[in-house]
């Protein structure tokens, strides 16, 4: 028993002693480098490491010597990339060819003159100095607001992908961009998922006028919920910034006037407008949940009544209704007593607000609208002054859940986005009238040809 107890002790001594008589001639000291050379130099000289280092330096030097000479030999184009002369003229043809001051301002506002400068090679920004070109998707980009937003993004030099199922959007709104290599159009319904690689997502897809969203209310709320979920999911996967275009309808028939972003609204959840009102409220909820729960960068805009060129001629919204009816020599239809009020912003002001919100650092929600308030009777009088002083007004029973008052408080947008509308109703309305008059004339000529 004593022998067994002592045996491990002797074994440990043998293991601890590097000079045990029973072990081989191996000694750890034999692996140490020679003291005659520094350790690092000895490492480099072994196994031809020095040769590999010299070869690597030679290859790297050769690359940096040859590369600049290749760039000198490559042909250069005096015009910026992706802007051909054909595209330049094609884009200009989409705007009305009249020389009124309003039109001149309109072209300046959308950056058309700046676009001309760059298309002709004047004022070209050197590579590395200008802002990074972004890849942006705009859902509903063939619609009224979406197409104007796409024009602004293309004009500033971004690559834009438009997604639209053409329920309310029209190819004519973006046809002038078909030859532009920085523009892409995909016919797709956002209710179905889509995979893209982009930096920013402007989510506008949803019918916005009562005529359209009441046509298929179930489809409308699916677009608001499933479409928003799909685009938020895309933003989460690819790390894109997401902007939701919500609506002033989230305030319902407001008990607060004017409406601030802190107001929670007064909405009928089971009314005929609920598919749109509650759909947008749910979309806002989803957007904030993705922001808080998944860290998605989001922005929320609450859009108030907007008008301008490319609106649908008969979409049921009051400005387009009045303008179309006055041009066609029909009575302007006023629902109820005409004392309900709305605030009307020109489309270019809204587009500026959306871009400022997307490029800013604040989540929102932000009211984007013109605080100038008009009753329906007052609006009808402005339309008469602009189009036809002899136009008449016809009163009809009011529609269900029609808000009595609507006016945005835009203090938050002024302070945090440095944004406010610049174009008054009397300045913007003639630009819309010119567009409507041309389209109605073409429509009538088409009917005569048939």
From TrEMBL:
One Pfam family in the UniProt entry = GDP_Man_Dehyd
Cite the record's Polar residues compositional bias ranges.
Answer: 1-10
At the top level of its lineage, which domain of life is listed? Eukaryota
Name the coenzymes or cofactors required: NAD(+)
Any stretches that span the bilayer, and where are they? 50-70
Question: What sequence ranges are listed for the domain NAD(P)-binding?
Answer: 138-430
The pathway entry for this protein reads as:
Nucleotide-sugar biosynthesis; UDP-alpha-D-xylose biosynthesis; UDP-alpha-D-xylose from UDP-alpha-D-glucuronate: step 1/1
Say yes or no: keyword NAD present.
yes
Q: Name one GO cellular component term.
A: Golgi cisterna membrane
A GO biological process of this protein is: UDP-D-xylose biosynthetic process
Cited function: Catalyzes the NAD-dependent decarboxylation of UDP-glucuronic acid to UDP-xylose. Necessary for the biosynthesis of the core tetrasaccharide in glycosaminoglycan biosynthesis.
Name under which the protein is recorded: UDP-glucuronate decarboxylase
Species, as recorded: Sesamum indicum (Oriental sesame)
Taxonomy of origin reads: Eukaryota, Viridiplantae, Streptophyta, Embryophyta, Tracheophyta
């Amino acid at each position: 028993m004593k022998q067994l107890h002592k045996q491990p002790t002797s074994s440990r001594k043998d293991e601890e002693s590097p000079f045990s008589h029973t072990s081989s001639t191996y000694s750890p000291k034999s692996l140490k480098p020679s003291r005659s050379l520094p350790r690092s130099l000895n490492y480099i000289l072994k196994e031809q490491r020095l040769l590999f280092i010299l070869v690597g330096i030679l290859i790297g030097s050769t690359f940096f010597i040859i590369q600049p000479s290749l760039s000198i030999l490559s042909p250069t184009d005096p015009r910026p990339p992706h802007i051909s002369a054909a595209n330049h003229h094609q884009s200009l043809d989409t705007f009305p060819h009249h020389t009124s001051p309003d039109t001149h301002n309109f072209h300046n506002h959308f950056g058309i003159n700046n676009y001309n400068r760059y298309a002709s090679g004047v004022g070209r920004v050197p590579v590395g100095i200008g802002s990074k070109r972004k890849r942006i998707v705009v859902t509903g980009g063939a619609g009224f607001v979406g197409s104007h937003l796409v024009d602004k993004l293309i004009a500033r030099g971004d690559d834009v992908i438009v997604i639209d199922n053409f329920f309310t959007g029209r190819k004519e709104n973006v046809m002038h961009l078909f030859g532009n290599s920085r523009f892409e159009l995909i016919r797709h319904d956002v209710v179905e998922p889509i995979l893209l690689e982009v930096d920013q997502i402007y989510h506008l897809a949803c019918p916005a006028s009562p005529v359209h969203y009441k046509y298929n209310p179930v489809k409308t709320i699916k677009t608001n919920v499933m479409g928003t979920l799909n685009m938020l999911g895309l933003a989460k996967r690819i790390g894109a910034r997401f902007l939701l275009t919500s609506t002033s309808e989230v305030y319902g028939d407001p008990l607060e006037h004017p409406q601030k972003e802190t107001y929670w609204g007064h909405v009928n959840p089971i009314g005929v407008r609920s598919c749109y009102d509650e759909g947008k409220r749910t979309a806002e909820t989803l957007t904030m949940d993705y922001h808080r729960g998944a860290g998605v960068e989001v922005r929320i805009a609450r859009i108030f009544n907007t008008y301008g060129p490319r609106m649908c001629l008969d979409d049921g919204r009051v400005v387009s209704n009045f303008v179309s009816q006055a041009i066609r020599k029909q009575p302007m239809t006023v629902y109820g007593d005409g004392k309900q009020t709305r605030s009307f912003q020109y489309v270019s002001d809204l587009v500026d607000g959306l871009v400022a919100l997307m490029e800013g650092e604040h989540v929102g929600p932000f009211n984007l609208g013109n605080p100038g308030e008009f009753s329906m009777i007052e609006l009808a009088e402005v339309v008469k002054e602009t189009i036809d002083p002899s136009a008449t007004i016809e009163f009809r029973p009011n529609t269900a859940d029609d808000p009595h008052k609507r006016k945005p408080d835009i203090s938050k947008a002024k302070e945090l986005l440095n944004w406010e509308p610049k174009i008054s109703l009397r300045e913007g309305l003639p630009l819309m009238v010119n567009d409507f008059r041309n389209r109605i004339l073409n429509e009538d000529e088409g009917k005569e040809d048939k």
